[in-house]
Write a structure and sequence with these properties.
Length: about 325
Amino acid sequence: MPSFNQSIFHPAVFFLTGIPGFETYHAWISIPFCCLYAIAISGNGMILFVILTESSLHEPMYYFLSMLSFTDLGLCLSTLVTVLCIFWFNAREISFDACIGQMFFIHGFTFMESSVLLAMAFDRFIAICNPLRYATILTSSRIIKVGFAIVIRGTTALVPLLLLLKRLSFCRSHVLHHSYCFHPDVMKLSCTDTKINSAFGLAIVISTAGIDSVLILLSYVLIIHSVLSIASPEERKKAFGTCVSHISAVAIFYIPMISLSLVHRFGKHAPPLVHTLIANVYLLIPPVMNPIIYSVKTKQIRKAMLKTFSSKLI
């Protein structure tokens, strides 16, 4: 194992971390990670495939679900190489430019997923609170525009953030706490003033995930108010049932993200294992769970997947 003496490292090189304290078991630990990646990639890929090929699923709700699967695939593929290379080959070294590129995709897909969840909340709000105008409000052209807006919003703010990171000098330990590059983690290794970086990063998080979470909460307050005004208990149950999958997706996305942010801001003395576990939960659990939730809770998706499987077997 290399010695991490700061004087022998070029500033453009970092070292990623696997599971601290369990380095000798990395080959065995890679097995559940491989399974999680396989579930996430195959599950989201299958959802994308059935939505594209099944004409019955060419509706706004499923178009937004396909966007969610696309962002989950992007998150998985952004970390797949570095994580498995650490476990299989102990290949921990990553150049600064490659680290910047990985951060762009990880944070970009994260912000895009937050925007997609907001769009899905708006979809449920229109479907329940104003069903007669649903088809006229969420037209195909508007959904395409929303998709482009989500991509632009998720990526444009990252460019100045990462350019600010490139101006920093790194003269401390070059060992990161995670098996991938994460902006707060890299920024902590700098020996220059990072107040501008911290302030700009916080502003981006508040203006994306922060605003999205507030608007999602507001939409569900309005949905609950609308559903409670329905006289029939069966209709109430049916209306709430259409929101269960989305509420679950929101929970499994925001809870790990908030936990990781809190650990980076207030958990300076937390064991390295805590940082690593929360970081892996943050990136792996939503892509793994979303396909499972939507295939179990959404009858149309489940039927389309079973139809696809049965046709392949025949």
